[in-house]
Specification:
It is a single chain. The protein is α/β, with parallel strands linked by helices. The chain is 43% helix and 29% strand.
């Protein structure tokens, strides 16, 4: 089974506001970078989207080490939040609907295809590849902010 390093990040200006996501896939000396964004989104949506898009880019099952600075995404898997949400009909402990359910469902589908190891990275701490995906996500956020401003005639 191929081993992949996946580095992801999301960024948002305002919450909600313009946002961006990035994913960097690496195996050996091969690397693939993906990024995108939305005009009106949240940071958590962008964090989730980066992981979904990175895993979706893999064409066959792999052993994937997912590096991310999002406790929200990592803890959903490692602390059993997703299992509890599903048992509760996609409701939180407070009986509120789980936010971003459609993205969680997409992520669950992608995760099921692979062997995943979740690696939490301290954001903005000088970790080279984390800094790189942060820059890419921020560039997408800024691009979408400019598009919104242009549409508004600002």
């Amino acid at each position: 089974m191929t081993e992949i390093e996946l580095w992801t990040d999301g960024a948002c200006s305002g919450n909600p506001g313009p946002g961006g996501w990035a994913a960097l896939l690496r195996t050996g000396t091969h690397e693939r970078v993906l990024s995108g964004g939305e005009a009106l989104t949240t940071n958590n949506r962008m964090e989730l989207t980066g992981v979904v898009r990175g895993l979706r880019a893999l064409t066959r099952p792999c052993r994937v080490r997912v590096h991310l600075d999002s406790s929200y995404v990592k803890n959903a898997f490692t602390n059993g939040w997703l299992d509890r949400w599903q048992r509760n009909g996609w409701a939180t402990r407070g009986k509120q609907p789980v936010k971003n359910r459609e993205l969680w469902l997409e992520l669950l589908e992608e995760v099921a295809r692979h062997e995943i190891e979740w690696v939490k990275v301290a954001g903005h701490s000088g970790v080279e590849l984390n800094e790189r995906v942060d820059q890419l996500a921020c560039a997408e956020r800024d691009r979408h902010a400019q598009l919104v401003a242009a549409r508004a005639g600002v």
